[in-house]
Amino acid sequence: MLEQRYRWKNRHLRMHVSVLDGKTSPTILLKNALYLNQTFRQWMRANIWIYEDRIVYVGESLPPNMETCEIIDCTNEILVPGYIEPHAHPFQLYNPLTLAAYASQFGTTTLINDNMALILHLKKREAFSLIRDLCSIPTTMFWWSRFDSQTEILNEEEIFSHSNVKSWLEHDAVLQGGELTGWPKLLNGDDMMLHWIQEAKRMRKQIEGHFPGASEKTLAKMMLLGADCDHEAMTGEEVYNRLMQGYMVSLRYSSIRPDLPQILDDMKRLGIEAYDRLLFNTDGSSSTFYEQGMNDQMIRIAIEKGVPVIDAYNMATVNIARYYNIDHLHGNIATGRVANINFLSSIENPTPVSVLAKGKWVKRNGVKVDDAYTLVNWNQYGLTPMKLDWDLALDDLQFSMPFGIKMENSVITKPYSISIDASEDELSSDHDECFFTLIDRNGKWRINTLLKGFATSLPALASSYSNTGDIILIGKNKRDILHAFNRMKELGGGIVMVENAEVVCEVPLTLNGIMSDLPIEKLIEQEKRLLAELEERGYKFSDPIYSLAFFSATHLPYIRITQRGMYDVMNKTVLFPSIMR
């Protein structure tokens, strides 16, 4: 995508035509390729001409001019379109650039990204500059426009003002509104959210739902109000209900919901054999979950579960492109499309040997092309190391709440009555209760309670990574908590574990305290170390990164810790307000 309203200027289009006339040589010729033709739903042989970032011809003919053309004999290659991830959260410790570079190695060449971190942490000018500059990388990036913060923040009306949301919706790179984590407000009469949905519809953009456990009637109501797709089906029956109400259904395989194998078994049992209204997504998984692949893994699982091979590939490519009205550019190998092509060793193995993204090699014969993704100067977008001009003291760590929060799984928390003495500086390791503090990154307010179920013998963990970018402190030992906070402050943000005043492990997050600037391969090593150390100290769930992110997320039940205080999601009330420091 270039820095103008149209992807290619008139002079580029004329140049593309001149390739067919023999006046200009293609840049790449893929000769005698066996490729997936989704129009005919067949594997077909053709010669594919590419000029820079565009496929200019697919058919039997060879270019009349091949003076400066890279010619590749694809007789033994199998070609499919680059995969599309329709539901990326590109801020789960990694950042949009490192996610794009890593995903490309598994054939995912287009990302449709959540804008939550951008709208919460950057000025609009900075966010739009970053989106513009990311257009220059080989991966194609599109975005969402969120309508709410999915928590209780102090300046929600300012961040999600009408003018701000409308600016995002009007941006050419934004393909959808949502996801609608705040849909209960919509059902309860929030006309501003309904207006934004109407505006998105007027602009021919989609609305992504977020309806876990929704009844048939709720699904129908949300369809009437404008929802187009939902990614929260956890069983085949829930897939069926969404399809019956006219939804596009995005099947999920993620670090906190690895549901896909069971869903596909359920669908087979229910006799669901139509796949045109189904998509694949990985829902912003933690980096360690991506170690074995991304959308290619979902295609593989589908093939193994008996989904017709072409349908399995379509759910990661053309189905998504058609749904978002971008199939004139993406999702298939045909004349006029962006040159995003995966080269496979076999039809049954969707992990590519080589990858073209925008006509550039990002992976060649199984080897990553190192200079394909250029470094970004994050400072110019305001993504600098955190600078905290305040100190944490023992006085901030006073705990006198009558009840705390209990973890049911990685992300669900319920209230529980506190029966232990929390007035001491250290808690016993013979139970699974820890001190828990959420504190404003600017040091203005805090809320203290106890957290049950996170760990049994964790002295201290400090994290600047959270849903809102505020600071989370968890542990048994208050002095170690101070050490962990101070080390996190020195790093400019991150996740730090301390025991006996010594740093056990750390994950530096130098991009505003919420993202790492390391390649995902290195981030995986750090995240594995963190998980291992937490498990050794009693963490028994699957995904601590999501635990940290979702402590304040009010789109989940039941009790959340937010900027406004301890919040009862079901009754929509603040039980205990945050305290000004």
Low-confidence parts lasting 5 or more residues at pLDDT below 50? Answer: none
Helix content: 25-40%
- Radius of gyration from the alpha-carbon trace, in angstroms: 25 Å
**How many distinct beta strands?**
29
Strand content: 25-35%
Oligomer: single chain
**What's the overall average pLDDT, rounded?**
96
Structural class based on helices, strands and sheet pairing: alpha/beta
Gross morphology: globular
Q: Span between N and C termini?
A: 47 Å
Describe the largest sheet: 9 strands, mixed
Number of helices: 17
Provide the fold topology:
Layout (H helix, E strand, L loop, with lengths): L9 H11 L7 E10 L4 E10 L2 E6 L10 E4 L4 E4 L1 E6 L7 H9 L3 E6 L2 H6 L2 H11 L5 E6 L10 H4 L2 H9 L3 E5 L4 H5 L3 H12 L3 E3 L7 H10 L3 E2 L5 H9 L3 E5 L7 H11 L7 E4 L13 H10 L4 H6 L3 H6 L17 E4 L9 E4 L2 E5 L2 E2 L34 E5 L5 E5 L15 E7 L5 E8 L7 E4 L7 E5 L2 H14 L2 E6 L2 E7 L11 H17 L7 H7 L8 E4 L2 E4 L4 E5 L1 E2 L1
Parallel strand pairs: 1-4, 1-5, 6-7, 7-8, 8-9, 9-10, 11-12, 12-13, 18-21
Antiparallel strand pairs: 1-2, 2-3, 5-14, 14-15, 15-16, 16-17, 18-19, 20-21, 20-23, 21-29, 22-23, 22-24, 24-25, 26-27, 27-28
Helix pairs in contact: 6-8, 10-11
Keywords:
9-stranded mixed β-sheet, 581 residues, 17 helices, globular, alpha/beta
Explain this structure.
This protein has 581 residues and is an alpha/beta fold. The chain is globular and about 80 Å long.
